[in-house]
Every structure is written in structure tokens, then in C-alpha cells.
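FORM 7B: Structural annotation worksheet

SECTION A. Query
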Amino acid sequence: MHAETDASYPYWDASVAMLSIVGQILMTRRFVENWHYWIIVNIISIPLYIVKDLHLTAGLYGMFLVLAVAGLVEWRKAERA
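SECTION B. Predicted structure
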């Protein structure tokens, strides 16, 4: 990866991208498990963007993390109802 790209953390970036794709596919099919993928994406993204000195983006992903946890809780409630 380092030979083909100038990305600073290519494997972490690729992991975030692939997990996001899986999360999106699961979300479009309305699987509750999509929220687990989004939580993992956000947990990986926050420190990644902090290390890259993209603090505002890391803060945005912090808010996404809160929304993903809230989404999981709400979908679990709806599933039980």
C-alpha cells in the first residue's frame, strides 16, 4: 500500500472505508447490526483523525458515534415493540 499511495495510514483508511460500505449495505437492508459497524467505524476514525491533526473531523466522528449508539438503542427498542 505504501508503494501505491501517499496516504499516511493507508490500512486504517481502507479499513474505515470497507467497514463503512458494509455498514451502509446492512443499513439499506434494515439490519440492526449495521449500527455495530458504524460504531466500530467511528471508534477507529476518531483517533485516526486526531493523529492526522484533523481535530474538527475527529469531533464530527465523535458526534457520529453518539448518533450511532442512539440509533442502535432506538432500533433495538423498535425491534422489541
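SECTION C. Observations
The helical segments are 10-28, 34-51, 55-80. Residues 10-80 form one domain.

SECTION D. Sign-off
Analyst initials: ____
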